[in-house]
Every structure is written in structure tokens, then in C-alpha cells.
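Dear colleague,

Thank you for sharing your sequence with our group. We've completed the structure prediction you requested, and as agreed, I am returning the results in plain text so they can be pasted directly into your records. Please verify that the sequence below matches your submission; if there's any discrepancy, let me know and we will rerun it promptly.
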Amino acid sequence: MLVQPKSEFNISDPDFVAFCTDYAEERFAGGDMGSERLQYVLSRDLISHIFTFRNTERMLGYVFAIIEGNTLHYWFSFYDTEYMRSHSLGKWMMWKVIEWAQEQDLDYVYIGTCYREKSLYKVRDHKGAEFFDGIRWNTDANLLKELCRSDEQDKPVDTLKSERKYQIGNTYFSQEND
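Please find the predicted C-alpha cells below.
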């Protein structure tokens, strides 16, 4: 794994652009990351580092990260979709970035949102996870699982926007209590 400040990475390299856009076309909903959108994302000052993963035979993937203060935000990842069919490449890359953050004495790693059940690997595979429940940071993994499962259900109004007081499972929330 190579970790580089974005300023030292050639974001215009055609192989890099093709790798990322090919991944996005296959894996992002609607293939919503063409080369123009990719260059737009990369042009933002938010991304501070790019993690590069390769083995002796091939490029495995890239992670775009934002490192600010004591926090690393794991923002976008792109990886070899052929190789991932036989290896848990995305999870391994996420784990390696988290391990790197620990080695750098960073206090927090934000690994992204959890919507729908497909995101629950973040809770299952990474212990000590917290999530923002709409009012406060929360460590209740069962509540997060319930919220993710409820994302699959049709609702007339988003749960977190429906009322100032609401119930999810056996947990009651009130913005007035905080």
C-alpha cells in the first residue's frame, strides 16, 4: 500500500482514470462517475490523500481519503472487480486504511454512511463503530441494523424527519432531550 498526498499523485494519468471510471460504471448505481465527474471530485480540495493498492501482478485499487486533524474520512474506493470475485478486496482495503490510521495515531476513521442492509458489513467487520442517529452519536449496533433494514421499506415520510419525537424499535428519540 502506498499513501500519497493528492498533490503528489498524477490524477490525470489515463490508466488511473480508466481504472476508476471502469469500476464506477460497473459498481456505482447508474455508473455515476464518468471521467468528467471523477476529475471534478479530484479537483476539490477535500481529498488530501490517495491510497494505492497493488500486488506484483496488477493494480488492485485506490482509496480517496480526507485527513483532517485526528480524523480520516474513507471517501471513495475503486478496486479491481475481477480480482474481487475471488477475494474480499474492498473490505481488505478498508481494513488496511483503518490499520494505517491507527499507526498514524488518528483517533477516528469515518467509513461512510450506512443505508440499507448491504452497508451492515461496516458494523459487522469493524468493531467500535458509532453512527449519527439524527440526534446524537450512537453505538447501538442493533439499532443501526434496524435502521438499515427499515431503509428497504416504503415509508410516506423519512423516519428522522417525521416528528420531533419518534420511535425506532424499542428506542425513543426526542430532540428536546438533548
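Summary note from our side: The two ends are 42 Å apart (CA to CA).

Kind regards,
the structure core
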